[in-house]
C-alpha cells in the first residue's frame, strides 16, 4: 500500500512490512526517512543490513542468491537496494517480484531507494508487487512556494523561534535547497541558548559557513571556479562533513544537467527544460555554463562517475572518496584527467 510520507516514521515503530520502497528526489527527505527506518530495525529483530547499488550491469542473479542464502547468525536481514534510475529492468523486476512472493512476516526485509516514481512506473509489475506486499512511500518535492512552510515547520520541530524577518532572509539565501536548509537549522539550534533565532545569528551563521557549504561547492563546481571549488571541498573534509551529503548534492545537480541537456538536444526550449527539472531561474546561468563547458555526453559520463562514488560511500567499492570527489569536480569543470 502507499503510505503518506508524514505518517511513515510513526508507522515504522509499530509495523515493518517485508518490502518498502522509499522514492523521492529530495535527498534530505529520503535519507532522513531511511535513517528512521534503520533506527527502527533492531526493535523488529533485524540486526544485519546488506547494501546494494544498481549501476551498470548489476548482478541480479547474485542479488537473488544473496537473498536465498542463510544469514551467518540466523538473524533477519535488511537488504538496501539503491536504484538511481528508478528502473530495475526486466531482471530486476522479476527479482523484486519474486522477493515479494516468498516474503514472510518475520523474514528478511527489502528496502528499495529510488527517485520519485511517476504513474507509469507505479503501474509496473515490480511496483504493483511491492504495493501488494509492503509499502511505497513517496517523499514530497518541496518547490519554492512550499519551501517557506517546510522551513517554518523544520524550525518548530527543533523548538526554535524566529525573529520577525528572519524567515524571509533564510528563504532568500537558501533558495529552496533542502540540504543546505537542514544543515542551517541544525547549526542555529546549536548556536541558540534559549531557542530564539535572530537575524544577526542567521547572518553570522551564513557568513561563517559561506566558504565551505555543500551548496556553494555545487555552484562553484558548475561555474568553472575550479580552484575555489577544490578549496571548499578540502574545507568540507576538514570539518568532518559526511561525504554522502556531498555525493548526493553533486549527483542531484549532475542528473538535472544531464536531463536538461538531453531535453534541449531533443528540441525542448531551455526555459521549459529548466522548469521541468527544477532549476531555479537564479541558477539557470550556472547550469547553462556547465552544460556548454562539458556537453551532453560529458554529463552522461559524469553520471556514471557519480554511480561509482555512490558505491564508494556505501563501502561497495574500495578507494579514497574525497580523492574521487576531487576528480569529479575537476571533470565537471571541463578539465580532462589522463
* Overall body shape: globular
The average pLDDT value, as a whole number, equals 86
Give the biggest sheet.
5 strands, parallel
Class of the largest domain, according to the CATH hierarchy?
Answer: Alpha Beta
The end-to-end span amounts to 49 Å
The helicity comes to 55-70%
Q: Kindly report the spatial arrangement of strands forming the biggest sheet.
A: 2-3-4-1-5
- Work out the count of structural domains: 3
Spans where pLDDT lies below 50 across 5 or more residues: none
**Helical stretch tally:** 16
Radius of gyration: 21 Å
Q: What fraction of residues sit in β-strands?
A: 5-15%
Please trace the helix and strand order, writing H or E for each element. Answer: HEHEHEHEHHEHEHHEHHHHHHH
Structural class designation:
alpha/beta
Topology, element by element:
Elements: H1 5-14, E1 19-23, H2 27-40, E2 46-53, H3 60-68, E3 76-82, H4 89-102, E4 109-114, H5 119-122, H6 125-133, E5 135-138, H7 147-157, E6 161-162, H8 166-174, H9 178-191, E7 196-197, H10 199-209, H11 214-223, H12 226-238, H13 243-265, H14 270-276, H15 284-313, H16 321-332
Parallel strand pairs: 1-4, 1-5, 2-3, 3-4, 6-7
